[in-house]
Amino acid sequence: MSGRSQEEGLKDLTLLGNQGTQYSFEYAPEVLESVDNLHSNRDYFVKFNCPEFTSLCPITQQPDFATMYISYVPDKKIVESKSLKLYLFSFRNHGDFHEDCVNIIMNDLIKLLDPRYIEVWGKFTPRGGISIDPWCNYGRPGTKYEEMANYRLMNHDLYPEKIDNR
């Protein structure tokens, strides 16, 4: 039995445990769901790694593949992981540049969760001999998380990748 009660956000979930899940092949931010954060009295990171992220080039319609890394410090809400999987899957036929994809993901999660801090990093596989690895972050304005975001932005790439550690 779950340690959470239905009153703590479980009753509102529609995807987790649903055997009739519908997969959207078009960008679908409406599938994102959240639950109450029962530990909002402390800071902690939640990290997701999605090694099978796919989107399309908006010009050529060729597929782009990436590992998408999402890390955030929650406040009152946490994202429900199955809804996040379905949301990320919905980019499958979405045509946008890599930089747009990571910023769209971050913006949608900010809208859903109002996190204290969040960062999204897309490590796209090379196509045409070049990889593009956009990274973006956000810290709640006027708080220590805004300072954290500025610090991490200025220092996020202190150890650049080498050709053999990709």
Automatic annotation (TrEMBL):
It catalyses: 7-aminomethyl-7-carbaguanine + 2 NADP(+) = 7-cyano-7-carbaguanine + 2 NADPH + 3 H(+). GO terms for molecular function: preQ1 synthase activity. Pfam families: QueF. Keywords: Cytoplasm, NADP, Oxidoreductase, Queuosine biosynthesis. Its EC number is 1.7.1.13. Coiled coil: none annotated. Substrate binds at V79, E80, S81, H98, E99. Belongs to the GTP cyclohydrolase I family. QueF type 1 subfamily. This is NADPH-dependent 7-cyano-7-deazaguanine reductase. It comes from Psychrobacillus mangrovi.
